[in-house]
Amino acid sequence: MSLNLFHNYINCLQKYDDFSGKSSRVEFWSFALVNFIICFLMIILLGDNSKFHIIFRVLIFLPALAITVRRLHDVGKSGEILIAIPLSAFLGYIFMNSQDDISHLFGILFAFVTLMLNLRLFFLLIQDTQNEDHKNIGTPSTDNL
């Protein structure tokens, strides 16, 4: 995998609809870094609520989702955590805005669950590639028997 940030970024944009397959750490974090730089520059130059910034974030959503799912496949996980995070955040938001004390506690619980799911996702995204060949190293082969 090339360390060229913009080559990896363009490659990810071209695979915007590919939710199967795998993406390496370098490819994923190159994409994330270039997105961060673009958004940072847009906020500094145009402001946080500029139409260009909002349009960029909407347009980049699908490629970002696809590369995240491919990165999770690369570490041997499915993309299901990406459904659980916004669902948990939404439930936390609903419960936290209620007037009932018990519901408010559920909101705090869902906020904590959302935080834990985000931490889990982060640690999955920084993991090394799960390579099937490495699992068989050191085990005797049954082909010679």
Q: How would you characterize this protein structure?
A:
- The protein has helices at residues 5-14, 25-46, 51-74, 81-96, 101-125, 132-135.
- With 145 residues, it is mainly α.
- It folds into two domains: 1-74, no CATH class; 77-133.
- Helix 2 (25-46) packs antiparallel against helix 3 (51-74).
- The longest helix is centred in the last third of the chain and has 25 residues, at 101-125.
- It is globular and about 50 Å long.
- The two termini are 38 Å apart.
Keywords:
mainly alpha, 145 residues
**Span from first to last CA?**
38 Å
Helix-residue proportion: 55-70%
Low-confidence stretches: 133-145
Number of strands: 0
* Structural class based on helices, strands and sheet pairing: mainly alpha
Q: How confident overall, as mean pLDDT?
A: 85
Rg, Cα atoms, Å: 20 Å
Number of helices: 6
What number of structural domains do the residues give? Answer: 2
In percent, how much strand structure appears in the residues? under 5%
Overall body shape:
globular
SSE pattern: HHHHHH
Main beta-sheet strand count, sense and barrel state: none
Protein topology:
Elements: H1 5-14, H2 25-46, H3 51-74, H4 81-96, H5 101-125, H6 132-135
Report a brief summary of the structure:
With 145 residues, this protein is an all-alpha fold. It is 70% helix and 0% strand. It has two domains: 74 residues, no CATH class; 57 residues.
